[in-house]
Design goal:
Layout lengths: L1 E12 L2 E12 L3 E5 L6 H8 L7 E6 L5 H7 L3 E4 L11 H11 L7 H9 L14 H13 L5 E5 L7 H16 L3 E6 L2 H4 L5 E6 L2 E7 H8 L2 E6 L2 H12 L4 E3 L4 E4 L6 H10 L4 E7 L3 H12 L1
């Protein structure tokens, strides 16, 4: 089931496209990571989906609704934390949530306590929001979003500025939300962090969507391997299996085999092959780190 679909979504500021013809689909259960540098268009895209900004062209479909009335109703099933949430500095966590519960007409008085329990902020007592750590502020902002029990949540740079402990806390909360059936769109400029939680990714650069892929595809793209260019791929595979017990390999062309294990045994592998009459024209390690892959995608876009 599609939760969000955008078609040619575009937003122009000062004659330049902040978001340029972006089409993507988020399905129920996804943790969808929007990855890009600061200023790439991630926040503008999210603002349009949440109706904080109006697109200059393109379409937004939420829960199967694309007309104005349908979108307005569908957005009631959505929560978001974009930029800095408007929480009152001199109020406690409970007072902040109670204020917004009344303002938003949420009838369940237990929603405040339930949300605080979910994000682990039930023991803050009389401590005011202004005295919270950055991680606590992020968790309270998430609690505010959860009071209406949304089916779809949008989080803009939820780990930005957090210390390692705060990052882990937010990561675990996102996983818990996903396990409870909530679909999540979150943005970041840190691929290594997103890769620990996201199930799908969209790379955005200068407002344009330059690549999207699943978590499995990302792992495959970045997987380290020994690339062997040989004159007999079938015989090479048989020798690797029989003599070295290698089973994790893949044929990628008529002359190239990629081996994903025993990468510390390259001399032994090449010696075996040449001694058995295989002509090895090249043997080198391939595959990117997540950081290298990110830079390659962004560099290619530039």
């Amino acid at each position: 089931m599609k939760v969000l679909e955008t078609r040619g979504l575009t937003k122009i500021y000062g004659g330049a496209a902040a978001v340029d013809n972006v089409s993507l689909t988020i399905e129920k259960g996804d943790i969808y990571g929007l990855i890009g540098q600061n200023g790439a268009g991630k926040t503008t895209f999210m603002r349009m989906v949440t109706s904080l900004a109006h697109p200059d062209s393109g379409e937004i479909e939420l829960f199967g609704k694309a007309d104005d009335a349908g979108l307005q109703a569908a957005r009631k099933r959505m929560g978001s934390v974009i930029e800095h949430p408007a929480l009152y500095p001199n109020l406690t966590a409970k007072q902040n949530l109670e204020y917004y519960r009344i303002q938003r007409g949420i009838p369940n008085k237990g929603a405040v306590q339930q949300s605080l329990e979910f994000v682990g902020l039930t023991n803050t007592g009389k401590k005011k929001f202004k005295d919270f750590s950055m991680g606590m502020k992020q968790r309270l902002a998430l609690a505010l979003t959860l009071m209406s029990k949304p089916d779809f949540i949008i989080l803009d740079e939820p780990i930005n500025g957090l210390d390692p402990i705060g990052i882990v806390e937010i990561r675990e909360l996102i996983k818990s939300l996903s396990n409870s059936g909530v679909t999540i769109l979150l943005s970041s400029h840190i691929l290594t962090e997103l890769s620990q939680i996201a199930t799908k990714y969209a790379f955005i650069h200068d407002g344009r969507l330059v690549k999207n892929l699943t978590h499995a595809q990302l792992q495959e793209e970045c997987k380290r391997a020994l690339s062997l260019s040989v004159d007999d791929v079938a015989k090479t595979a048989a020798l690797l299996e029989t003599n070295l017990g290698i089973t994790d390999y893949k044929q990628v062309s008529a002359t190239e085999l990629r081996v994903y294990e025993l990468l510390d045994k390259v001399p032994e592998i090449t010696h075996l092959l040449t001694s058995e009459g295989i002509r090895v024209s090249a043997a080198h390690e391939v595959g990117d780190s997540l950081e290298d892959y990110y830079q390659k995608i962004i560099g290619g876009a530039q």
